[in-house]
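Next up, a specimen:

>
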Amino acid sequence: MRKRKIILATLTLALIATTGFALNWFRAHQKLGRPGIKAAPTSEGIVMSIELPEKVLDFTSTNVPQSEVVLGYLPKDTSYAQRFYMGEDGFWANANIILMGTDRSSIHKADYCLAGQGWRTVKKETVKIPIGGPEPYEMPVAKWTISRIIENPDGTKREIHGIYSFWFVADGQQTVSNDQRILWFYRDLLTRNVLQRWAYVSYLVACNEGQEDAAFDRLKGLIAASVPEFQLPPKMIAHSAVARR
C-alpha cells in the first residue's frame, strides 16, 4: 500500500511538472493576433490607438472618454474608443469599441454591460446589415430591444425604450454570439497558439415605446456608413444566432 502511494505521488508530481512546463512553453511561444479593427500601436505597450469616425453622413459627433469605473475594472492593456453621434433631427446614438489586449476578461457578455447600466432586455434578434466599400458584405449584428426606468427632474419616473446593437470581431472572424467567440478563442489558442485580439463593438440608441423599428432604421444607416471607417473587411463572416445566455 505504501509503495502504491509513493508511485501515485510521484506520478502526480510528474504530471504537475509536465503541465507547468507545457503552460510556460505555450506562453513563451504564444502569438498575439491582429485586431479585426483598424488600430495603431502606442507607446503604452499592447494598448492600441483606435478611433471611431468623427463625421458620418449628416451626423456630428463628440469624442467620449471612458468612465473611471470602466477604466478601473477592465485590464490595463484594454484599448477603447467611444463617440456620441447626433443627427440634425435630434436623433442620437452612442458607439463604443472595446479591444482586448492579452487578457480575455476585457470582453464581457452584453447582458452584463446592459444590466450594469440599468437596462432590461425585452427582445433579442440577429439581423444583417449591408456594408459597402471595396469588399462589400452583409454583416450580422445583434439587435436587442431594451428598456429602463429613469427619473424625471420633478422626481417622477418613466420608462424609456431603446435598441442595442453589437458584434464581436477579430482577425478574419466575426460573430454576435459570445459563446461562439469564446469557442473560437480557445480553438485558436490550442491549435495555433494564437491569442486572438477580440473587439466588442456596440451602438445604443434610446427612443419612446413603439418607435424601436424607426430608431433601428436610422441606426442601420449609421452603422453601415461608419463600419468601413474603423473595421477591416473580414475574410470570414460567421452567421451565428444569438446564443441563449
